Amino acid sequence: MFRAASSPTYLLANFCYRYKKYKKEHNQNPSALKDIDGEDVFSLTLHNIKIAMNLDVDEYDLAEYDKHLRNIINEGREFLRDLVSQCENLEEAKLLLSHDSQLDHYGLKHESTDWDYGRLDEACLSNHRDLVTHDFSQRIFRETWCNLKSIKKPLTCANNERAELIPKMLYSLILSPLHVLFYMFAYMPIKNFGSLESAKAHLENHHPLIQDLFLHYSVPRNRCISDIACHLILICLLLVTMINPNDEPKVLDIDWYDVCLLVWAFGCFMKYLRDAFYFLKDFCSYGKRSKRTHWKRSIEGIKDFYKVMQFLCCTFILLGELFKFIGFTSCADNSPENQNQISQFLSLIVFKCKLTAQDDPLLYCDNSYLKTGYSLIGIGATICILNLLHWFELCSKMGPIIVSLRHTISDILKILTTFLVFLVAFSVGLHFSLRLSNVYCQDEHTKVLARTANETQDCALDIINTNLTGFSLEDNVNHFRSFRESIKTCFWSLFDPGHPEVIGCTQGPPRHIGMILWAAYQIGNAVIIMNLLIAMMNTTIAGIQEDKITHWRFARTQIWKQYFDHPNKCCLPVPFNLLEMMMNLVIMIIKTCVNKKKEGVSDIELESPAKRGDSKEKVYLDLVSELCERYILKKKKMESVSPCCQSSSYKSKY
After folding, report:
1. Is the pTM of this model over 0.70?
2. Which of 251, 358, 371, 552 is the most buried (most CB within 10 A)?
3. CA–CA separation, 111 vs 294, rounded Å?
4. pLDDT tens digits, residue range 184-237?
5. Are 467 and 453 in contact (CB under 8 A)?
């Protein structure tokens, strides 16, 4: 029943019949539009696609209907794309894409931007690439991206976008203090307590530089450029901290770049923590919608792997700085002299730690807080530099490569599950077979004892020599006497297969069984799993390369959309977002106090949009009706011109 009622043929016929009936009987009665509102062919098709995507066939034991649901999704997306293609100009496409009365059914507040095209938000959320990458949709996205009303200017902007990136970035860096001041103390107050339209009209008579100072961070493209610049500055701070040019020999000190790195990382951390808070808030408030469907769509809405990795990057950097600070203060507290609290406080003020002989970072143990902090910062630096690949998706040449790389990660995760089962299974089998062997090769017993020894590290020396040792896969050592060594041996053999000498000098049936298990593991790992992964990655990359422009446009649009106006997102770059968050808190307190006196006025002002809605709804339905007629006429022409080219599946569809 749902399959039949979701077909484009039925939806077209039903809408045309209902709208012609309305035009004939209630043409002058706007209240009769309520019978058609929300049931136009575009809204119903989009609504049916969302139902088919979120219907869990496994939960209801409807696996045999999975194919029908996929057909509903594919046919609906194809029909929506063709319907948008029937628009003759951009204005018709804007009217078509800016209206939908059923988006509240599955809409997510943290994914919906503050603009008029909710259908494009839904298309991005549901991975409808054809609709998002359609020429009309891309022109709408680009207009919003450049914050320009004329379509000719965004196209000019697109042609020079790569050439203007570096000059625009330098311009943003040099004038960033002025841009921040104008945004916080001019743009934000007028936006919340005044009229932006009147302010923009007043600025038209001023110099373009004054206009840019006032409106710089209201343009999504400028926000993105500022974020790229801040990301590069964070990497530079990490590299300068690693080189440590102002370091005094054998002295623990805190320099200006350590403080800047801490502030930058904290601002970045608060930015993504704020996004995570609003995501969890929307995730838990599903209202009248289905809880399972809402949660499923919320999880599917986490497409931006960059945000998660950047959040982890800042978390590791902050933890590393915290561990460094703990190690720094412990250096001051371990003074051999009896220093009082004032002298210890002064030692921290000058950012130096010379109160003890243990002030050389090299003299700290490897398990100290200080060296642990540097290790955590190293993890954060690695993630931060890798996150540069995210911005390459904005480039038409590098974008498809990064998109292919991102899609192959899902293939790796699928194969990883199989590999983990192989790893645990064969590690347990080899450990059981060889753990009781008491036959040792030459010098094997000495290596095993040295590897398991627990020596206390003497950190008072510049160079520490220990008796600790280990063994590699090439050594004739039984690696499977402990389960931990079994896991490690099986895992690292993934990158260096073979090496039957890991069985050691074990004799008898344990050796034969161990060799069989090890050979089976190598065959399953190196021959089957790795080649299967390569085949899956080749298929994924080939599928993307067939239509790489569409995939790249969709990925680029997802980045663009993150910088569109949203009430829950900060517009200022790191670390100025901390100031914006405090300013938003002040504005919220002021608005709360002021709005208590204007509750009656706000209720009256809400009536005017409702009156204007009937006329807009009528224009929209007239457009949908006209598009349906163009669509039907186009299909009739296609059938009359080349009936032999129409397949049986196409004829059954239409």
Report:
1. yes
2. 552
3. 13
4. 998 888 888 888 888 888 888 888 888 888 889 989 999 999 999 999 999 999
5. yes
| Number of other CB atoms surrounding residue 428 within 10 Å | 15
| Residue 150 burial class via C-beta count within 10 angstroms: exposed 0-12, middle 13-18, buried 19 and up | exposed
Strands (E), 218-292: 252-253
**Which residue, 585, 583, 566, 593, is CA-closest to 186?**
583
Separation of alpha carbons 272 and 224, rounded Å: 15
Burial label, 327 (beta-carbon count in 10 A; 0-12, 13-18, 19+): buried
DSSP-assigned states of every residue in 76-102: HHHHHHHHHHT-SSHHHHHHHHT--SS
Helices vs strands, H then E, count in the chain: 30, 2
Residue with tokens 């590290």: 457
Task: Determine the 3-state secondary structure of 252 from DSSP.
Answer: strand
pLDDT tens readout for residues 290-300:
555 556 655 65
- The top-scoring range by mean pLDDT among 111-120, 349-358, 452-461, 508-517 is 508-517
* Closest to 230 in 3D by CA, of 578, 580, 572: 572
Q: Are 610 and 629 in contact (CB under 8 A)?
A: no
Judge contact between 133 and 122, C-beta under 8 A.
Answer: no
**Three-point CA angle 395, 400, 405, nearest 5°:** 120
Token readout for 104 is 């509240």
Q: Comparing C-alpha atoms, which of 87, 1, 84, 16 is closest to residue 46?
A: 84
Give the single-character DSSP code of 182. H
Beta carbons within 10 angstroms of residue 339's beta carbon: 15
Q: How far apart are CA 137 and CA 223, in angstroms?
A: 21
pLDDT value of position 532: 93
* β-bridge partners, 253: 352
Plot region of 600 (φ>0 → left; ψ -120 to 50 → alpha; else → beta): alpha
Cross-strand bridge partners of residue 352? 253
The answer to whether the beta carbons of residues 584 and 567 sit under 8 Å apart is: no
Closest alpha carbon to 472 in 453, 454, 485: 485
d(CA 374, CA 324): 7
Tell me the CA distances in angstroms from 211 to 187, 202, 267, 477, one per residue in order: 11, 10, 28, 74
Contact 301, 106 (CB under 8 A): no
What is the pLDDT averaged over residues 342-356? 42
Residue 246 is given by DSSP the state: T
Q: Given this model, what pLDDT does residue 163 score?
A: 64
d(CA 625, CA 614): 16
Q: How far apart are CA 654 and CA 649, in angstroms?
A: 9
CB 431 within 8 A of CB 490: no
Q: Yes or no: say if 504 and 437 are a contact pair by the CB < 8 Å rule.
A: yes
Closest by alpha carbon to 548, among 81, 127, 133? 133
φ, ψ (nearest 5 deg) of residue 338: -85, 85
Chain centroid to Cα 67, Å, comes to 30
624 within 8 A of 96, measured Cβ to Cβ: yes
pLDDT of 553 reads 93
